[in-house]
Amino acid sequence: MLAAGGSADAAWVQRFNESGVGAFDHLQMQIEAPAGFATPSGINGFSLSGWADTYNDGNLLIANGVPAGNLSFNLRFDSPRNTSLTFYFQAWLGDILKEEATVNWGGGSWKIGTTTAWSAPRQESAVVSSVPAPSTLLLTGAGLIAIGYVRRRRSRERRDSFG
Questions:
Q1: What is the residue extent of each domain of the chain?
Q2: What is the H or E stretch that residue 17 is in?
Q3: Cα–Cα–Cα angle for 20, 40, 31, nearest 5°?
Q4: Cβ-defined contacts of 119-128 (< 8 Å, 24+)
Q5: What's the pLDDT tens digit per position in 16-63?
Q6: Which class would CATH give 2-113?
């Protein structure tokens, strides 16, 4: 069960503790609002060695480590302390989802719920689309047409010089 400890003081670093769900080896958090609340050092201060943040793009934070049943860690926030925010939290052991929660900061207190609207699979990093942009396809097509034109022209010039 995820719990927030201490208070969100001027440093705007909050200590969390994950325990009571059995062993887990992977934590992931998806930011709902406001976008980009986490700094590049958004998750750190793990209570166990062997844990590290492995991905952070400001909206998705991922940490991996040795299987643990109890782990404390810090989250660092960029937004002002009086700004409301929400993030979705998941704890995994391999491919088994051990816990998910919705975490809300109302500008003065934390509220941690046991349900979430985020049903993401275990991720090691953000999923990147591999579909090229339409302009890329247009440029590639134009380049191929130009190459074909030049080759045809050179072929015609060689044929005319021999004939």
A1: 2-113, 129-163
A2: strand 13-33
A3: 55
A4: 120/28, 120/30, 120/88, 120/90, 122/26, 122/28, 122/90, 122/92, 122/95, 122/97, 123/28, 123/55, 123/60, 123/62, 124/54, 124/55, 124/62, 124/64, 125/54, 125/55, 125/62, 126/55, 126/57, 126/60
A5: 999 989 999 999 998 876 655 555 568 889 999 999 999 988 778 899
A6: mainly beta
**pTM, to two decimals:** 0.67
Rounded distance, CA 87 to CA 33, Å? 7
Q: How far apart are alpha carbons 120 and 151 in whole angstroms?
A: 51
CA-CA distance, 4 to 19, in Å (whole number)? Answer: 12
Using a 10 angstrom Cβ sphere, with 0-12 exposed, 13-18 middle and 19 or more buried, the burial of residue 56 is buried
Is there a contact between 61 and 53 (Cβ–Cβ < 8 Å)?
yes
- DSSP codes joined into one string, 40-58: EEEEE--SSTT-EEEEESS
| Three-state DSSP state, 112 | strand
